[in-house]
Amino acid sequence: MADGDGAAASGKLAEASASGFEKGLPRRGKSCSGRTLNTAQIPLVASHPEVYEPCDDSFALVDALLSDKAQLLTLKPRLCMEVGCGSGYVITSLAIMLRHLASGTQYLATDINKHAAETTQATLEAHGVHADVVVTDIVSGLEKRLAGMVDVVVINPPYVPTPEEEIGCQGIASSWAGGLNGRQVIDRILPAVREILSERGWLYMVALEDNDPLDICHQMSEMGYASRVVLKRCTEEESLFVLKFWRDPHAGTSMSPKSPKSESWFSQLPFRSLWHKGS
């Protein structure tokens, strides 16, 4: 949320459960603010009891994208993707920011939670924008098809430190359960995203201070990516960072496959969603 805006719900961290371990159960409730005309409008964002609603971390990621809007427009991304789309607030906001691009940008979103896929579809439709939504774990089953194709990836990952056994929980728990130091899911996401990013691709990702953002940047450097903190925001319960990564020939050794010619992947789009209304 932009500085000065009314506070929305809290982030993913909250009081400990009965076991005494901080599970990060998020407070419910959306912001009453409509935000800006450059983002998804909160009253139009669909909801479901098993889907994480837009909160401080969602707003921080969208604000980071807004701060980079001019650069994104210059990049003219051909394919943008959100991993873990939840309510659809972020991917919808990105599509709204870039909808005047004449290049015909395509949008793709994934989530392991089928209710999130349905909610994202409803949010997209309410705003008059389109993305193909696939129910899958990160990019499972899409790796070969997407290899070297995606120009912009946005991720608000499960980053809350939780017991390891909570990893892979069904429903809303999948949106925050990050395991040890909140890094177990993040450490699976990074190499997967690296394989799908194009040579000019950018990755925007939310991280918590407990996740050790410096170590995340170091890990990406070893994969051949430079990084910077686009936005840092402190809430009542967490210190959030939005990190941006891009390929840097001077950072580590890049082994990602070369981007295929545009004809080879334009012919494959739009994707046929693996989620269908009513299924």
From TrEMBL:
UniProt KW keywords: Methyltransferase, Nucleus, S-adenosyl-L-methionine, Transferase
InterPro entries: DNA_methylase_N6_adenine_CS (IPR002052), Euk-Arch_PrmC-MTase (IPR052190), PrmC-related (IPR004557), SAM-dependent_MTases_sf (IPR029063), Small_mtfrase_dom (IPR007848)
Cited PROSITE patterns: N6_MTASE (PS00092)
Top-level taxon of the source organism: Eukaryota
Domain Methyltransferase small: 78-160
Gene3D superfamilies per the UniProt record, alphabetical: Vaccinia Virus protein VP39
Coiled-coil stretches: none
GO biological process: methylation
Gene Ontology CC terms: nucleus
SUPFAM superfamilies: S-adenosyl-L-methionine-dependent methyltransferases
Keyword Disulfide bond carried by entry: no
Subcellular location field: Nucleus
GO molecular function term, any single one: S-adenosylmethionine-dependent methyltransferase activity
PANTHER family assigned: METHYLTRANSFERASE N6AMT1
UniProt similarity note: Belongs to the eukaryotic/archaeal PrmC-related family.
Protein name: Methyltransferase small domain-containing protein
